[in-house]
Amino acid sequence: MKFVVNLLAAVGALVVAASVQAGIVKVNIGAFTPQAGLITFSEKPLNTINPTYNPADYGGGAGAPVVSFGGFFAGQSLGLASTCPFGAATSGCVVGAPTPGPLSLAANSPQTRIVGDGSNPTSPVLSGSPTFNGPIGILFSVDLAGVGLDGGFFNAIGGTAITAFDRNGMLLGSVVNSGLGIEFLGLVSADGSATIAGLLFSLVGAEPAGFAIDNLRFGTAGQVTVPGAVPEPTSLALVGAALLGLVVARRRKI
């Protein structure tokens, strides 16, 4: 009987694992292969407003996304002192959910701009508005498995986050900075599926000296490594069937 209970518990654990496949996993820069897309913001002139990158602009191949930038997504807005997290400047805090439907950048959101940054060794960078104190929304024309960027220069821990959304504007997950200076912030879908359509870089707490992004990386499952990927549902079903088969075999022997 104990054997049967343990096997059923194992099956249950696999089912639970399958239920979290759609989640987001934090990753480091090593998760992105050389085949992943890379935008350094040196591809276009300084002071370019709300740049749009076609694959040819960053060396992307067939099927690579068009990447567009703005302040935030349609349906969102800048927060107020009463609605932003404690310590977050209202110029960089974004509230609300994207409008359901195809994700799009809000036409009335603050502009983004390519600028020089003496605090970043790989300047130029992309800043929101006002300079170094505004949010940045990133829209991909193709759904992706992983996205990452260099954020900073951070002077506070836990004050800035990247938040991923799917094509319908649904929240997928977020990653918050855990260090000071320039930090790589990256995330991938837990099962390696192409679900990420947009990314928001914004304040979720105090950041006293400003922030910007650089070296944006992105890719499909073949271009990013998913750590500890959960087996596909079909594989889980086969494992579960095998375990149940062992239960039947055990019963026959008893």
Describe the model:
With 254 residues, the protein is an alpha+beta fold. It has two domains: 1-20 and 230-254; 22-229, Jelly Rolls, CATH 2.60.120. It has three helices and 15 strands. It has helices at 2-19, 55-58, 233-253, and strands at residues 24-27, 37-39, 52-53, 67-70, 77-78, 94-95, 113-115, 125-127, 136-144, 146-154, 160-165, 171-176, 181-189, 196-203, 212-219. The chain has a six-stranded antiparallel sheet. A five-stranded antiparallel sheet has the order 1-13-10-15-2, with no helix packed on it. A two-stranded antiparallel ribbon has the order 5-6. Strand 11 and strand 12 (171-176) form a beta hairpin. Helix 1 (2-19) runs antiparallel to helix 3. The chain is globular and about 45 Å long. The N and C termini lie close together (10 Å). 40% of the residues are buried.
What pattern of helices and strands is seen along the backbone? Answer: HEEEHEEEEEEEEEEEEH
Q: How would you describe the shape?
A: globular
CATH C-level category of the largest domain: Mainly Beta
Q: Within the largest sheet, what's the order of strands?
A: 3-4-9-14-11-12
Taking Cα atoms only, what radius of gyration do you get, to the nearest Å?
21 Å
| Assigned CATH architecture of the largest domain | Sandwich
Average predicted confidence as pLDDT? 85
| Number of H/I helices | 3
How many DSSP E strands? 15
Helical amount: 10-25%
Percent strand equals 25-35%
Structural class estimated from helices and strands: alpha+beta
CATH topology of the largest domain: Jelly Rolls
Residue runs with pLDDT of under 50 for 5 or more positions:
1-22, 229-254
